[in-house]
Amino acid sequence: MNSKELKASRVKLFRDAANFRKTERIPHFANVVTWKVFDAGHTLDEAMTDFDVMEKCVLHFLDKYPVDGILDVGIRNQFNVTEAFGEGSYYYYDKEVVGIHDHAHCTVDTLQEYMDDPTKYAWEKILPKKYGESWEQKDKAVWKKTFSEYMKYTKFILHMNSVMGKYGLPGLSPNNPMKGAVVPAVEELMSNLLGIQQLSVAMRRSPDLLDAFIQRWEKERMEPIYEKIRASKGQDYKYCFDSSILMLAHTVMNKKQFERFYWPYLKKLLDEYAAKGLSIRIFTEGSILRFAEYFKDYPKGLLTFHLEQDDPFEFREALPNVAIMGGMTTDLLSNGTPEECVAYAKRLCDELGREGGFIYSENKMLSYRNDAKAENMLAVSKFVNDYRL
Amino acid sequence: MIDYEKLAEAMGDLDEDTVKELLQQVMDEGGEGAPKAMEACQKGMDTVGKLFEEGEYFVGDLIYAGELMTDAVGILKDALVSGESSGPKTRMILCTVKGDLHDIGKNIVKSMLEANGFDVLDLGIDVPPEKIVETAKAENIKIVALSGVLTLALDSMKKTVEELKAAGLDVKIIIGGAPVNADSCRNIGADEWAHSPQKTVDTCKRWAAEG
Amino acid sequence: MKGKYTSYPEGYNKLVKDIIPWYMRPAKAMLMRLLLTILVDG
User: Taking the model in full, what pTM does it have?
Assistant: First the structure.
């Protein structure tokens, strides 16, 4: 099989699994981010600022572990861009740790101003606040250097996409900033515009302002996405899924808040996907089981939830119509033995995947050195790859 | 004089307008009712904790409650004499461990511990084990609460527990945050673990009572 | 002293002319949008 055929066969495998069709084996989508840097013998600061090192780490992983897809191929390496621009990045990293400081671009009172012209708002409010006095001093040389690093980063993404192609690895979904990533309003509020603290307070103190923002977001950002969905010709077999959405904001909401600020809009989006028979993946941070009742009437094949904290067996019982991605815990990968990991992986495959509906993956983005032992990762990857149902 | 039951109920309902109105009335009346008003707010926070346990409130409500409590203290502070009405407070350490910058959960727990009479030494975020040990020694701390959201926090928690034990300190340790569970608690060597702030508060109260 | 590029839209438009090579100008809106996303959120 050449790499194109291999990719096509993998896409079919993922799609069959997500659509509850029986498959010969369970596909493995590796939820591996920076763990692969350590596994390749490098440190984060080396890999985060050197594309050659990052590529080496990605290839080391792909050569060592038989997987059918991988979440990240080093395209989070934007640090050279922000560092060229100067101090002020929200990211922090050293040899062992990479993370992002909480940040909020707006207050609940400036959300409409942001929506009036996001570029203007960024130029006049966000960037001056973020970069302080140095914002006024950014001259042509700094901007040219930043742009140059940005071009190198863009080139790196394209290069790594071609590497993925050579390995016959499909992309997860067509979502990317260039094509309009699908971000519900509350997720943008949570991650960038208000942050967790302000959103939590605003849900109680300024619910009408939130409503106004969400409805505007719906009209200006989501309607074009609904139009694209309506114009689609059905499931796109270039990718494993037709869309990939992150759900995080629900982790702070009580049921009433979910019903007011999140569900009506998420339902609209899911209904649009359902009308076209598309298949989407939702990474549900934290636990989603509290809200299981909202998803129970959707047809099999529409939804695959990538679970983080929820027990996959409990989840299957609560939502038999929703395919599961995930299952393997960092607990077991880091503290268990290879035999224990394989036994659990077998249980996942047997109990969740015999009639389709299961894609093996790790429950958390493997980011830190001790998130998994290499011997465990190898044992389960080989097992899942070889196990025939 | 205000209706303190009404104040407690309003705090439990997270009814900011009523809480602030009543607290302002206390101050307008000279502030003598401030200690009782504080107790009523604390009672309200107990209700918040219980409603969280029951699933009616969630994390966002706890964050909001923390802000409301901070505002309440801000209104009453000039009339509150620290320590007088509530008796000696148990001092304890709370922090987010090394490598982790998350503080929302820690701050929620801090509000609830303080509302329950603890004197919380908040060491902040990204706190190395040595700092915790040094502070525990200097302040004669008997209870340490460690928080973390990232999986690497578990390693930092383990190192912290080891260093506290190596220093010969007789402390009770509770760990909290998304990655902790019974297995990791055992592996880390902590005395207790919690996902809910209420469990943290109840455990710390039990330890404080046991002396 | 106010920066050369910090006014909007004048400074912004001048920046686009100064840093984006002529052959990339047809894609300038998309390029700037992504660059700004990195600088704003990163």
Answer: 0.91
